[in-house]
Amino acid sequence: MSNSSRNLKKANAGANIPASDSLKLSKRERVDCIGRELKNLFPDPPIPLDHKDPYTLLIAVLLSAQCTDERVNQVTPILFSRANTPADMVELSVDEILEVVRPCGLGPQKAKAIFRLSEILLEKHGGDVPCSLAELEALPGVGHKTAQVVMAQAFGEPSFPVDTHIHRLAQRWGLTSGKSVAQTEKDLKRLFPKGEWPSSFHFHYYHYNKCVKFLLTESRQAVSKCL
User: Which of 46, 48, 37 is nearest to 13 (CA)?
Assistant: First the structure.
């Protein structure tokens, strides 16, 4: 049995995540219960993007926009075999980068962003990825979520990256009524103390969604101690 199959079977048997339309606990109790159950289901969720350092993580997360992690993990070994540092990357042309990253979608924009951010890292940061949310967000092609993932995974800084997967789950579980990812992020940060934003928290949510997506439509029938 594959790891994903085992995770799916485990989650189907043990998930106790509530649906927002049948909640019986207070929001504080619900938050505690959800956090506990996610950690029980996936105590050590894998980081879905292959990387070896802050720079390769930054490039991988940038490429993952509107692309599957599986596809990114197929493309990055080819790219990083040719250039896995800012100095090596700027030795390639934008067209050469595009040739490799095109399968990830939005190829021209991503290729230009990778080339230019590599130049900026050399010009302004000594070739290193900055450990600063503001400086990361100032890089081409690096949005708020990408910057937060890098801060959390590369530098171990408390961070709470929220994407559309987490946004939908948080709504489903009654943790937010936010209409946007930005509002959901604010709501979740208020609910979960900063000390409980471990770098893996995003991936607890992410891995849950990837492994047991079907539960989002079947959870009303699930017996749940979080209800």
Answer: 37
This model's pTM is above 0.90: no
- Higher local confidence (pLDDT), 21 or 156: 156
Is 6 a residue whose pLDDT tops 80? no
Q: Quick check: do 3-45+160-221 and 54-155 share a fold?
A: no
Query: Span 54-155: which CATH code?
Result: 1.10.340.30
Q: 3-45+160-221, what's its fold?
A: Endonuclease Iii, domain 2 (1.10.1670)
* Amino acid 221: pLDDT: 38
Q: Which of 181, 177, 179, 136 is nearest to 154 (CA)?
A: 136
Catalytic residues: 145, 163
Of 128, 155, 112, 126, whose CA–CA distance to 55 is shortest? 128
Q: Averaged over 95-120, what is the pLDDT?
A: 98
